[in-house]
Amino acid sequence: MITKQRKEEINRTFSENALRILKKRYLLVDDKGNQESPADMFLRVAKYLAAVEKDYGKDPKLIKQIEEDFFEIMARKEYTPAGRTMTNAGAGTMLVANCIVLPIDDSLESIFQTLKDAALLQQAGAGLGFALDRMRPAMTKTITSRGTSSGPVAFLKIYNEAFGIIKQQGRHGANMAMMSVDHPDILELIRAKEVEGKIRNFNISVKVTDEFMKKLVESPDDEWYCSWKEEWPALPGGLTKVKPRRVLTHPNGVVYGSEEVDITVRELFDEIVNYAWLNGEPGIVFIDTVNKTNPLPDFGPIESSNPCGEQFLHPYDNCNLGSINLAALTRKGKVDYARLSEVTKTAIRLMDNVIDRFDFPVPQVTELAKKNRRIGLGVMGFADLLYQLGVRYNSPEGVELAEKVMSVIQEAAHEMSRELAKEKGVFPHYKSSIYAKEKVRMRNAALTTVAPTGTISMMFDASSGMEPNFALAYVKQDKDSDRYAYLNQHFEAELKRRGFNEKEMNEIKEEVLKTGTIQLLTYLPQDLRDTFVVSMDMSGDDHIRMQAAFQAHVDNSISKTINFPNQATREEIKKSYILAWQLGCKSATVYREGSRLIEAISLGKGEKMVAMTEDPTRQVKVKAIEGEALEGNGLIPRTRPETLIGRTYKIKTGYGNLYITVNEDENGKLFEIFATIGKSGGFFQEQSEAICRMISLALRSGIKVEVVIEQLKGIRGPMPVMTEKGTILSLPDAIARIMEEHLSAKEAGGIKEEIPVMSGETISQKLPLPKDIADYGLMPGCPDCGASLILAEGCMSCPSCGYSRCL
Predict the structure, then answer these.
(1) Using one digit for the tens of pLDDT, what is the confidence trace for 228-280?
(2) Do residues 771 and 785 both lie within one domain?
(3) Which of 506, 496, 565, 503 has its CA nearest to residue 528?
(4) Cβ distance 136 to 230 under 8 Å?
(5) Sign of the C-alpha dihedral, residues 186, 187, 190, 191?
(6) 799 is in which domain, residue-wise?
(7) Which helix (H) or strand (E) covers residue 39, if one does?
(8) N or C, fewer C-beta in 10 Å, the chain?
């Protein structure tokens, strides 16, 4: 009997942040506007799922005991099912899983049937995964229409727009799109999210094969060929080797062509690494490693996963998730392994019962759920567990503890599945599974995974999944941009236990608020700094080795982010990816701190956070960036100070001497450019002034000088000229050369001043300049060959090709 007093005790254990997220996501409101309490929610879920036992003829007393067991593991914060179960179980709404994979075949019918199914599932709150491999590459022939295909990424954009419109139950669209490195359009997918905010309703990942990874390690300079079934003679197996393609697209998004690309294995992998370094996508999937542990090989190879990559599934298959809170399972400074095993078994029964109440809006999904009975039991609070035990995350002891904890969960989960098989029968597709070959009767096709635990870990004030804590203090925003401030409760408790006074604690907290870590506070005891490490205190290799430790005792896969500091190099990311493959991880995702405008977690008080609801492609939210700002539809240039420091250079061009003034701001950064040639109002002066205005606007808006130089240097005009600085091809080329020279001189520690500094206006007034037809504002370029026109016998004519305006 769960008393009123017991409920009140449970409700008092939740923090303000936890209650906020509970009220927003999980606590139901009745017709009279009354909202249930956390204890009411646990009881609702426990009653509904325990009642499933009636279907198997269980005694009412046993059912009541099972209900209390379900209630206790949730009320004690030892376990929680996934958010969809918490929201929908016993609420009179569809009970669905968070993770489903849907097929997309190479036909318009399949593409849009899947879109329809996906829309219905998204509306019900499910997350989805898709493999794009079966869709034909861009610009290949289509039989029905006798036209050409727009390619997989074009259809991915259609899906993205549709999912962005559908409103889920308290959630926003979460989806995964994967493509094999063998697909000819792979470069198009790799680059699909180069601009932050594009295809925002999807995560994207590239599937790499063992063949590809072996070539990368052993012969990286081999040319890479993709494969596709086309009308030309095919290789054995029906596939033809083809080169990867660059898809050509008009600014309005219409695909108009493609061109083959010569690329080595190393270069292709560098493409993946570069874009992951840029903003965290694409992720990478070791698809052959995934299929080595496929529990249902008779149904063919697995091609995709759910949105966060912890569940690799066949088409229409799905998985029911739940997580054990390891932080709640310590007793006297040790892990209570007996209780951990008991909680695991109770959780497996609860999650197996969820499957009996699944009701998806797409019948194939419900059918396969009940035939495979997949479960994904994972963990959260692992980092907080280590804090309580005084064990450093990135240490041999931390890795050993990870293997021990996950192996206990794995063994208990499989043992319970065998018990349920005796009690309720094996899953219907048992004969097509690896267990039938091993002659082990199981209730479920798979049992363990490690999922990301976003809002459910916030509900229990626990660290997410198996991740290290991002920081000891931080601000987190959810997908609706509501913010939650955190100071790690275990860290605060340890400071109090060690007897720090209020002043000392405040000083420590100030440092933690600013940097997120205590590693710079060298006066603190070493064992304290060793224990309370955070994500940025460790290397990419540390992250990978911990992921591999968990993966060794997990049926499916793991959702894990390898966090890097902002200054991390592409080479570091590359090495981490290779190590992940070598250690048997099934996937890897990296994120370089600060590489996106919009981030879910921030240090400090979140003053500079851009809301999750903003569109980064439009840069609507104002954000300071080295003195510049983002507002409206673009960049706002810095205001010009009253006084600037500058130098003026002279350079010979085909149109006469060009005088270029380079002005710097107070920090020594290039701020604006002036250039003078010819008399004010003439054509050359008009051109040079326009070029310099746009250069100055770019510099004042934060565009890198090197990028500006790259755009201008090498532009060829009709009158190149040889000079001491080499061949000057045009006015923009001359300006770029001077900017480059200015930067080089600064880096070398000195700048040669060729003439006294003057403003652009003063130069035009003081310097004697030759008179030319361009001084009258006339166009000097020949419309036929581009050479300069001359004024001869009263007519504008071309000495090169004979063109004359008078003829």
Answers:
(1) 875 444 445 566 788 999 998 887 788 888 899 999 999 999 999 999 999 89
(2) no
(3) 496
(4) no
(5) negative
(6) 777-807
(7) helix 38-50
(8) N
